[in-house]
Amino acid sequence: LSMAGIFVEPWFHPLATSCHITSVTNPIQAGIELPFAGKAQILGYCAVVELLANYVKKAPGYKAGDLLGASYYTDENNPLWISYQEKELNNGRLAMIS
């Protein structure tokens, strides 16, 4: 399904016309044509994500890499928790390779 976007995007992009973007296949030109309000929304969203991540990191008991706070709800020596962490680490490595 994700590959369909590569082939369909040059001919069918309904949201681009409502944003007044004429060149949907050229990302640089599309970024230039994007109105200021669209650019502000993208930058605002990125700023909110960064602020929330920094807010979570200031919490007492924060552990590196645990932005969602899952370590508060489980014991670090629980075999299920260790297995989950290993699976996440291996999946992350696989995603970086692919």
Report on this structure.
With 98 residues, this protein is an all-alpha fold. It is built from five helices and no strands. It has helices at 2-8, 14-18, 27-33, 36-57, 79-97. The longest helix has 22 residues, at 36-57. It is elongated, with a radius of gyration of 20 Å. The chain starts with a helix and ends with a helix.
| β-sheet strand percentage | under 5%
Order of helices and strands: HHHHH
Question: What is the subunit arrangement here?
Answer: single chain
Relative helix content: 55-70%
N- to C-terminal distance: 18 Å
Tally of DSSP helical segments:
5
Q: Mind describing the biggest β-sheet?
A: none
Given the C-alpha coordinates, what overall shape results?
elongated
Determine Rg (CA atoms, Å): 20 Å
By DSSP, the count of extended strands is: 0
The secondary structure category is mainly alpha
Keywords:
98 residues, mainly alpha
Give me the secondary-structure topology.
Blueprint: H1 2-8, H2 14-18, H3 27-33, H4 36-57, H5 79-97
Summary, kept brief:
The protein has 98 residues and is mostly helical.
